[in-house]
Amino acid sequence: MQKWFNVGKIVNTHGIKGEARVISKTDFAEERYKSGNKLYLFMPEAKGEPVELTVKAHRTHKSFDLLTFEGYENINQIEKMKGGILKISEDQLGDLEEDEFYYHEIIGCTVETLDGEEIGKIKEILSPGANDVWVVKAKGAKEILIPYIGDVVKEVNVEDKLVKINAIEGLL
Predict the structure, then answer these.
(1) Residue range 66-79: average pLDDT?
(2) How far, in Å, CA of 57 to CA of 169, rounded?
(3) Hey, which residues does 66 pair with through a beta bridge?
(4) Are 40 and 4 in contact (CB under 8 A)?
(5) How far from 155 is each of 99, 136, 158, CA to CA, in Å?
(6) What are the CA-CA distances from residue 28 to residues 31, 133, 147, 169 (Å)?
(7) Greatest CA separation found in the chain?
């Protein structure tokens, strides 16, 4: 059974020449959206096989990724894709460097301090700039933002779904 991983959602068209406006959910946008790469479009209401798309071009505009696909040259073709989810198959994941992780490996991990005090679970990952920020749902309704930097994140064990952090001043 093929496993699929979400890389983005087509939220709108852009211009009239068949650009799709995508909100990315991928950890490696530059890599995923390289010209010639294959993405698979899953429409919410469609049954059956996903549509295979080949990336023709990629650029960023404001906080969106803009993609064009080979063979899709006008707005009407992209209009039909709105709401669709772009995915890649498990065999497209590739190998990572030692301190790199996929979002799906990090989300759901329990976070604890070096002393063993449990903080909460990672529920989301934000990519605002130079480093990712891991959003932790702590006890109560509180959210704690953990920057993914060496000073803070000391150990990541994706097998045991456990992240150990150095609770520097002002973090918790």
Answers:
(1) 95
(2) 44
(3) 21, 59
(4) yes
(5) 10, 16, 10
(6) 5, 15, 18, 31
(7) 57
Whether the per-residue pLDDT at 47 is higher than 90: the answer is no
Q: The tokens of 145 are what?
A: 């933002």
Better-scored residue on pLDDT, 63 or 164: 164
pLDDT band for 96, please (50, 70, 90 cuts).
low
Q: Residue 107 is which amino acid?
A: I
Tokens 């301090």: give the residue. 113
For residues 4 and 6, what is the distance between their CA atoms, to the nearest angstrom? 7
Query: What is the set of domains in the chain, with CATH numbers?
Result: 4-91 (2.40.30.60), 103-165 (2.30.30.240)
What is the average per-residue pLDDT within 83-94?
Answer: 86
